[in-house]
Records
---
Amino acid sequence: MPRRSERTISIDACSWCLRLPSRCAMLILMVLPWSVAGCRWPFCSVRDPVPFQVARCRELTNEGEKALDKEAWDDAARYFEEALSHSPHDIDTRRLYVEALWNQGERTRSIQALRETVELDPDNAQLRLRLAEMGYATGDMRTASHEIREALEIKPKNQAAWTLRGLIFEALNSPEQALADYHRALQLDPTNQRTLFLLAELHYRMNRHHSALASLHLLSDTYPPGEQPIRLYELEGLNYLASGQYGKASRSLTIALQQGEPSPFLWQSLARAEFMRGEPMAAERALQASLAMQPDHPASLELLQQIRITQAQAREFR
């Protein structure tokens, strides 16, 4: 291969040097945008600085959350309002603002704020669920039904959503559909105490006492020994009574009355259990306790009369 002359090499070097300023200018133009953005090189690990408005929104939202923890609803609402003035589309801040308004008692404003938040994030199942809860709480079953349907389409395996849909169906007088939804919820969380309670309550109202007792026994197993709630014993006693298991009814109702809030209805229920298992004296004592709380309690007066007639008839046959 022929050798290049020293003159040719010298000319090439000079040509490259002449082009050097333009190369430097191009390099500066490449690097400048990254420097303005807060990073010296495209491959550096330093993040872009958070815009002031976003940072201020986060700061105020944190203060609002602290106020929520202290149940200072007015202060919380003010913090969130100011935060949203800096970043109006911040979903987390909007969600917390909704809760502050709700706890203030501003239910109409709270629901409206949540509707606007759902419009910003329509595929958020939790926002839809919360709007359904608010609709249910305020008796707006149209909103509740629509939003719970949307929530379940977005997230079908949402246990809380199936439970709420059961409550909505109960309110719409569709108990069979409510039962189906409670069972669907329990498939996702078999030991959920709230759902088991709702299922047992509904079975009791539908006069399905054995099914109610089965739910109550499952519910009882979810608590440590001796820590079952009073309402569980009340429901257990009432279902035992309705199914003719009077001894068990007496035991459960006695526990409920001893540990909970006595009522004429519970005293009268215990009296009926005692009477039906052949203990008229114990029944009369329970009725006396009922009538001491409410002297004109109709069911207690009726049962007392029935007991006395039965006792009189028994004396005649002796």
---
Amino acid sequence: MISLPINNLNTDQINFTDRAFDLFYPIKLSVQISDEPDSLQLPALVQNSPSRYRIVVGREWLEPRKLEKSVPTYIFQENTAHTDILRIAANYVRLFRPLFPVEIARIIQSLLDNKTRRETIARIFFPEIGLAPNIKLIDTYLNCLNLDPNIAEWLIEKNAPLKTWLALSMLAREFQSNLILLLEKTHPTLSILEEIVRNIRETIIREDTNIYRILTEIEWKTILENCDLPETEKIAILRQRITRLRFPFLSSHTERAKTLQEKIDTPPNVRISYDPTFEIKALTLDATFASPKDIDALERFFTEENRHKLNELLENL
């Protein structure tokens, strides 16, 4: 264990341009710290170096206080082991929030750059920051470094689970740049984005094609950059077209069933539905009775013509 005493460090001794430890996103506290000089301040983590002190954690706390005489800090000595610095820094961040996958990836890369053996990272370092001692996690997390920073920040904002980080990190940068356009123009939910990415990836694999052809076919950019379409309509159109590519049989089946249903003269108090996956071959009839006229409307609904159309729809499920 390493004991780090709190020191009031003169701000002119801090090298704000040194970003050797630029590994962590800002820590957003639930209780804002006042900018008043006499207010309570959380200590930042810094390391002594030949060119003044470098910031390890807490840049977002120190930057607004550059003009103050001194700030509270925990100081690592220049000869402190790199693994110890990262272990303490990671756990300091964990006092306030979980580590983001991309932060773990940066930590791993920093350890590898400092010649730390993979076995040591997995067996010793991972358990010390709350991860399983699984060496396979190293490359799993390192994939997150492939993420465009805009997508990483969006995932942080959405509090995305690890599986979503990993799924998006496997995408080519060309695909990611198009996803950024989607995020900017439609602001999708996390589940909708996951659906779109999953269906496009599976279509690419099934058709043995590339992302450029898929996005061209569904007119991705044309739809997203259409200023006359509201966000909800843009996302609805793209989801429909992507689903049609991913499930061509299901999509054509759905359209045929919809066409047949629209031919049926249904009164306002009656609704016809069916299993959208077509696994259950049955129609459901929901009727609402608010007056005797509604009962009469249901009786009139079962004409010979409507019976024939209902039977035709049922046979096509």
